[in-house]
Amino acid sequence: MDIGANLTHASFRDDLEQVLARARASGVATIVVTGSSVEASHQALRLAEAHPRQLRATAGVHPHHAGECDGGTIEALRALAAHPCVVALGECGLDFNRNYARHPDQERWFVAQLELACELGKPLFLHSRDAHPRFAELLRAHRDGLPRAVAHCFTGDADELRSYLDMDLYIGITGWICDERRGLHLRELVREIPRERLMLETDAPYLTPRDLHPQPKARRNEPATLPHILQAVARARGEHADALGAATTQNARRFFNLDHDTQA
């Protein structure tokens, strides 16, 4: 199960059906489509409604879009979250790497989404890049009222990982672990993640595994590469890929409440 794919991205506009078919053929039966703004969250929901056997959606505002939020943002997310195809709030958090939005705006709308998750009891799909420890500080302040949360696309260091595990977060690992330039540290750290807290994702169309051969056209990543990521994680952990794949899928289905999802 791919817990995070940006299938609303323009690069999937012309061949989404083929992308989904390749995912199924690769054994990726369920994909969660990431919502990154109110509009993108509506698009993610429309995709999930159109493909109810394979897709679910999140609804949230990525920190890059925090400057676009207004008085209607949280009400819009609340309405989206009421739909049965929307299985989590997010992608939300802090990004002090790109700084596309001012830090005060990022923090304000991250906290607003944390509060909404507490109110609704909805799982959280979290983003943090170069924002630790401020991200952890804000999250910890709301932790007692929060439902389950996953640190999506984890690429941080040991201190950051241990901080998240101490807060009972799930950890999402992407093809970053396949990058010999930037991801070697993950091959060590991934061993520290308890099996019951580990989930896998592609973050498609981004983060195409660098050791994938041949490389896809325009280096566009897609959910069908998830088994390749699974193999890399299993090697790093010294586990059998089939067993680890079954465990991470079970974790994801439990996290997103899909075991009781009548549409699944």
Topology at a glance:
Blueprint: E1 2-5, H1 16-25, E2 31-33, H2 38-50, E3 55-59, H3 73-81, E4 86-95, H4 103-120, E5 124-129, H5 134-142, E6 149-151, H6 158-166, E7 170-173, H7 184-189, E8 198-200, H8 226-237, H9 241-255
- Give the CATH topology: TIM Barrel
CATH superfamily: Metal-dependent hydrolases
- Major sheet size, sense and barrel closure: 8 strands, parallel
Unreliable stretches? none
According to CATH, what is the class?
Alpha Beta
Shape: globular
Rg calculated over all Cα atoms? 17 Å
- What is the average per-residue confidence, as pLDDT, rounded to a whole number? 96
- Write the H/E string, N to C: EHEHEHEHEHEHEHEHH
Number of strands: 8
Beta-strand content: 5-15%
Percent of residues in helices comes to: 25-40%
Oligomerization state of this entry?
single chain
Number of helices: 9
Distance between the termini: 12 Å
* Order of strands, widest sheet: 1-2-3-4-5-6-7-8
Instruction: Determine the structural class based on helices, strands and strand pairing.
Output: alpha/beta
How many structural domains are formed by the residues?
1
**CATH architecture field:** Alpha-Beta Barrel
Please, could you describe this protein's structure?
This protein has 264 residues and is of the alpha/beta class. It has one domain (2-11, 19-29, 49-255): Alpha-Beta Barrel (TIM Barrel). Helix content is 38%, strand content 14%. It has helices at residues 16-25, 38-50, 73-81, 103-120, 134-142, 158-166, 184-189, 226-237, 241-255, and strands at 2-5, 31-33, 55-59, 86-95, 124-129, 149-151, 170-173, 198-200. Strands 1-2-3-4-5-6-7-8 form an 8-stranded parallel beta sheet. Helix 2 links the parallel strand 2 (31-33) and strand 3 (55-59). Helix 2 runs parallel beside helix 3 (73-81) and helix 4 packs parallel to helix 5 (134-142). The longest helix has 18 residues, at 103-120. It is globular and about 45 Å long.
